[in-house]
Amino acid sequence: MARTGRRPGTGGTRERILAAARSDFSRAGYEGVTIRGIAAEARVDPALVLHYFESKDGMFRAAIQFPVDPGVFIPRLVAPGLDGLGGRLVRFFLDTWDSPAGSPLLGLIRSVVGNEEAAALLREFVTREVLGRIARALELDHPQLRAGLVASQLVGLAMLRYVIKVEPLASASRDEVVAWLGPTLQRYLTEPNVTKRKRSSRRA
Amino acid sequence: MARTGRRPGTGGTRERILAAARSDFSRAGYEGVTIRGIAAEARVDPALVLHYFESKDGMFRAAIQFPVDPGVFIPRLVAPGLDGLGGRLVRFFLDTWDSPAGSPLLGLIRSVVGNEEAAALLREFVTREVLGRIARALELDHPQLRAGLVASQLVGLAMLRYVIKVEPLASASRDEVVAWLGPTLQRYLTEPNVTKRKRSSRRA
Fold this sequence. Notes:
2 copies of one chain form a homodimer.
Chain A: H1 11-28, H2 35-42, H3 46-53, H4 56-64, H5 70-78, H6 85-98, H7 103-114, H8 116-138, H9 143-163, H10 174-190
C-alpha cells in the first residue's frame, strides 16, 4: 500500500490506480470498466486517473505494460499505402524491441504465457487496438485472420530472437530480418484469401 | 523422494532419474552430461537409466518434455524431397499439438519463457536435433538461419493459436493454416539467401 501523508500524484497513487485497473480489467474486461469505477476502487478523484493515463485506453496499455500506442504507430505505418507495409511492420517491431520502450515486452510475453488472465487481456487489446486498426485502415477482406497471421510471425520472431535466443537469428541484422520476414507479412496482408483455393495448394 | 522398499523401476525411480537429468543438463549442458553421471546422482544402475530412456538423447527429451523424436519425424518429413516440405512441416506441427503428444508443449513454452535455464536447454536441443537435422538432410546454405526462421513462424503460430488464442486463427482449420503458412516455410527453406540482396528488397 502507498504510504499516507504524501501529496496526491506521487508514485504510490499511480501504482494504486494501476493495481485497481489491472484488477478491474481482469474481472470485467475492457468494455465493463469505467474510469469512475477504477478511481473509486483506488480511492482517488477520476480527474487524477485521467491526469496520469489520459484515457481508458492509455490506462489499459499501462496496466498490461504495452510500450507503444497503436493509435499513433499504426496510422504512421499504414499511411504510405499497402506497398512495402510488411517490411515496415517488421522494422517497427525490431526498432521497438531494441529501444528502451521494448524493455517491458519480455515481461509482457512472460505474463501472457504464464497467466490466462493476462493472455485474455492482451488478446482483447491486440484484437481491438492493433489488428482491428490495421484491418480498418487497409479495408482488407478477412482482416482479423490476416492480422493474426502477421502477429504470429512477429511474436515467433520475438520468441526465437529475444526469449530463446537461437543463433544466428538472435544476432542477425535488422536489415536481414526485414528482408526475410517482410515478404511474409506482405503476403499475409495482401494475398487473396487462400482458404478458397486450399485444395490446390496442398503441396505449397 | 521416492519411497523405499518398492521394486526398482516404479514411478519414484524414473522421477528421481529425471530430476538428476534436469539438474545435470542445466549445469553441464548436453555435451557435459553422461548416463553414468546421472545414474550416480540418482543412485541407480546406469542400465536402469537406459531401460527407461534408451539413450542420452531420449533422456534429454524426457527431461525437457519434448513430445516427439526428431530422429524419427524429420527423416519422414524430408524424405519426399524439398517440394511441399513447408506444408508438411506445418501440418506435422499442428497434428502434434492437437494430439495427446501435444499436451506437454504448452508447459514447455511456459518453462522456456519463464526460465533462462530451460530456454538454454531447449535452444541447444532444437539447434542440434531439429534444425541441424533438417539442414543436413537438405544440404541447404545457411541452414541454421533457415531453420530458425521456420521455427519462428511455428512457435509464433503456437503462441497465437494455443497460448493467447486469438481468433479466428485459434479456430481455423488445419488445412487453412497449412495453406497460409506452408508457402512461408517453403520460402524460408528454399529462397536464395536474401541478405545478399537486402538493399534492393527494402520495400518488400
